[in-house]
């Protein structure tokens, strides 16, 4: 199976497919409490059957070009997190991106690198004009990712999301294709000026 390098540390972005349900569930179990603090991924994957159904739903989204899911793997091949396009409307040119990570992989910049690949692909390969990032106001790490990606905070949907019996404020962040391309061009120019060579992670095919 192919992998998209996420840097020089051997980590890769690879498709997640229904046949990997047991491995996916084991990964969720390792980080269930941590992952489930702000997102419903942990609650949606309680056993092998629900994990397979979850991955099958994304396989169907890939087949209909309405979403994608990919796993973040270490150099040893261990699944430690992932990124996704929860929705993707090619006609309208819009998509909503998301992410998750188990505790052992936190603090290495993996999510930021992985989402950058995903947005590159959505913008350059699928012609997406607007990539949105919806995040609970209490999820500071995810908000930090949005900032590092150069997204703009558009507002707060007050008590929009009912999660585990409590109403949660949802922040809406986004980046538009012209903004994304300009930022990426500036990054490449800065690297060239520093003499560090081309950035190791560029737009690449993302399929399942």
From TrEMBL:
Keywords: Transferase. One of its GO terms (cellular component) is cytoplasm. The keyword Transferase applies. Residues 11-170 form the N-acetyltransferase domain. InterPro entries: Acyl_CoA_acyltransferase (IPR016181), GNAT_dom (IPR000182), Ribosomal_N-acetyltransferase (IPR051908). Residues 187-196 have a biased composition (Basic and acidic residues). Residues 187-208 are annotated as: Disordered. GO terms for molecular function: protein N-terminal-serine acetyltransferase activity; protein-N-terminal-alanine acetyltransferase activity. Coiled coil: none annotated. Pfam families: Acetyltransf_3 (PF13302). This is Protein N-acetyltransferase, RimJ/RimL family. It comes from Streptomyces qinglanensis.
């Amino acid at each position: 199976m192919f992998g998209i390098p996420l840097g020089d540390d051997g980590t890769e972005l690879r498709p997640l497919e229904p046949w990997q349900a047991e491995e996916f569930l084991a990964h969720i179990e390792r980080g269930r409490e941590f992952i489930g603090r702000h997102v419903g991924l942990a609650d949606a994957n309680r056993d092998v059957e629900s994990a397979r159904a979850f991955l099958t739903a994304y396989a169907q989204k890939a087949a209909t070009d309405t979403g994608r899911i990919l796993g973040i793997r270490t150099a040893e091949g261990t699944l430690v997190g992932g990124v996704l396009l929860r929705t993707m409307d090619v006609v309208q040119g819009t998509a909503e991106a998301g992410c998750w990570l188990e505790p052992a992989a936190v603090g290495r910049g993996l999510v930021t690198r992985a989402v950058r690949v995903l947005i590159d692909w959505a913008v350059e390969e699928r012609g997406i004009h607007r990539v949105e990032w919806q995040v609970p106001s209490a999820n500071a790490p995810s908000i930090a990712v949005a900032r590092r990606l150069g997204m703009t905070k558009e507002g707060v949907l007050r008590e929009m999301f009912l999660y585990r019996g409590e109403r949660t404020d949802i922040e809406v962040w986004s980046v538009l294709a012209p903004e994304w391309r300009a930022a990426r061009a500036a990054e490449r120019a800065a690297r060239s000026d520093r003499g560090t060579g081309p950035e190791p992670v560029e737009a690449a095919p993302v399929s399942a």
